[in-house]
Amino acid sequence: MNELWGEEKEKTEEITHKEHQWYKEAKFAMFIHWGLYAQLAGEYQGQHYWGINEWIMRRAKIESKDYAKLADTFNPVNFDADAIAQLAVDAGMKYVVITAKHHEGFALFDSKASDFNISNTPYKKDLIKQLAKACKKKGLRFGFYYSQMLDWSEKNGFGNDWEFNPDEADVQKYMNEKALPQVKELVTNYGDIGCIFFDTPGPIKHEQVLELKALVEKYQPNCLINSRIGQGLGDFKTLGDNEIPEEPVDGLWESCDTHNNTWAYSKLDFNWKTPKEVAHRLIDVISKGGNYLFNIGPKGDGSVPEVSAMILRETGTWISKYKEAIYGTESMYLGGQTQFAATQKGNKMYLFIKDWPKDNKIYVPKFNSKVVNAYFMDDKSKVSVTNLEGATMMNLPLRMPDPVASVVVVEFDGKPNINSDKVF
Ligand code: H79
């Protein structure tokens, strides 16, 4: 099952040939799941489908001819590409990745390769073009998600086994006639593409991955490709959906995360992560060296759920106070506990304290390098540091200065260097 849906952590080769510093420094990004399913919002023919709504076609076993009717009513007049790009900026995000085509098979862009696309809706206008332009204007890198194997609208696509006989599917034909031409459209018509999020490689073969990769790289030589292209061939790893690793991961990698319990908008789901939870998950990811790709699911009319947008802006307010501790930092692993986590840059360690200790003391590992200064990042007030036999003790004030997470800057006489015998 895991292998089929591409959920396993796949190996990636080390990249030396592509420009990727921007990706390493970015840390926080916006994922957008949007398609015809947004109109259903968790309900089909009076039935409620709680959970991931972008899968509603499969979960409700909707036949493709019925599902296609959703294109006749897709008219997202409240879609505002500039407002979405501004939301990403306000949230402190550095790149945006949108579903150009999810498993349902519908393209949010004007495609010559398949009529099942935005041009054949009452709305007509290319959504990818608008968003790519808006992102560029605001200095955000732009990327897209593309479901390269699963396509439930095509009898030759992979995955629609409730309507078509999987044994008769000619997946290579689907790739030649739809996936490859559409990916070519996406890498040629929308300016610079920072990264591509392929998904669920399923039974994709090595040669098929190579062909897809070569196509992307022919037109966008610096475009970073994720590991879910399949067969261990990506430039950066995508961990499992909603997965945050226990320990640091080597190389370039990303955790993708939902805001509630679905990627696509569902009117049934109010389980939003709070700004504090979003910030804590971001801290977790960056302390282990990754990027945090955080999802929003616009509604069928194109608007972003207001609560989701508010929570993101609030998270962005917190981030804006601690930029130096977040962007362009490296992982700093202080052991597997949840009270605090850290990043590092130069001779500084940035210690994020998520849960305030009852006795106002926290114990981090011993360092080989010497502490020369320690202070709260926001008001610069000093923190006293005591070297104990097996640990470094930080003496904190009575109350947590920042209710989301406080950041202590610890300066060393060199690069922070943990005494690895003393990590607990
Ligand atoms: O785009 C998002 C998901 O739709 C996609 N990856 C993220 C980024 C994804 N592709 N495959 N999967 C997720 C695995 C999905 C498995 C499940 Fe189900 C879908 C679990 C519940 C619904 C399939 C149908 C297995 C059980 C029922």
Structure report:
- Alpha-L-fucosidase is responsible for hydrolyzing the alpha-1,6-linked fucose joined to the reducing-end N-acetylglucosamine of the carbohydrate moieties of glycoproteins.
- Belongs to the glycosyl hydrolase 29 family.
- The structure is a single chain.
- This protein has 424 residues and is α/β, with parallel strands linked by helices.
- The chain has 2 domains: 2-321, TIM Barrel; 330-422, Sandwich (Immunoglobulin-like).
- Helix content is 26%, strand content 19%.
- It contains 12 helices and 18 strands.
- The chain has helices spanning 2-5, 21-26, 37-40, 56-59, 64-67, 81-91, 127-137, 171-188, 206-219, 275-287, 306-321, 323-326, and strands at 28-32, 43-44, 47-48, 95-101, 141-146, 195-198, 224-225, 237-238, 253-257, 291-296, 330-332, 340-345, 348-353, 361-364, 371-376, 384-387, 392-395, 406-412.
- The strands form 4 sheets. It has an 8-stranded parallel beta sheet. The protein has a 5-stranded antiparallel beta sheet with strand order 11-12-13-18-15.
- Strand 11 and strand 12 (340-345) form a beta hairpin.
- Helix 6 packs parallel to helix 11 (306-321), helix 8 runs parallel beside helix 9 and helix 10 crosses helix 11 (306-321).
- The radius of gyration is 23 Å and the shape is elongated.
- The two termini are 35 Å apart.
- Mean pLDDT is 95; it is low at 1-10.
- The structure holds ligand H79.
- Ligand H79 is lined by residues 5, 33, 51-52, 54-55, 58, 199-200, 241, 256, 263.
